[in-house]
Amino acid sequence: MRRLGVALLWLALVACASNPQRPADSSLACMRSVRDSLPEGISDAHAHCLAAGGIAQRCSSFEAGLAGAGKEFADLFTGGDPSWADWQADRAGLRCAREHREPEGLALCCTAEGF
To answer: What does the pLDDT read at residue 6?
Structure first.
């Protein structure tokens, strides 16, 4: 079990260090930077798609998955609204980030995906 923990930590460090244009050094700060850059007035599903895709582009895919899962898990205990639709929008954002390296492409892809 300890080896698994060490392997996951190593994987996270490699994934986090892989983007030289990261907006922040720590995972949490990187995720918050992307979240804070989202346009206002968009739907919740669109925000999930853009956030997950943006975190994947600017931080790492590992951190994007972690952020999406963490948000839904936190919603269970904080009076938020955990939903399968949010999770699906996060997954769409990750797919869009794999296909598009620029924020404009990500935004168009999220819209095309229905989010």
So the answer is: 45
Question: Would you state the structure tokens that stand for residue 9, as one six-digit string?
Answer: 């930590």
Our separate counts of H helices and E strands in the chain read 6, 0
Give dist(CA 16, CA 58) in Å, integer.
Answer: 10
Q: Identify the burial level of 104 via C-beta atoms within 10 angstroms of its C-beta, where 0-12 means exposed, 13-18 middle and 19 or more buried.
A: exposed
Residue 3 confidence (pLDDT) above 80: no
Predicted TM-score of the model (pTM): 0.79
| Closest by Cα among 36, 35, 39, 40 to 52 | 35
Please name the amino acid found at residue 14: V
In the predicted structure, residue 59 carries a pLDDT above the cut 90: yes
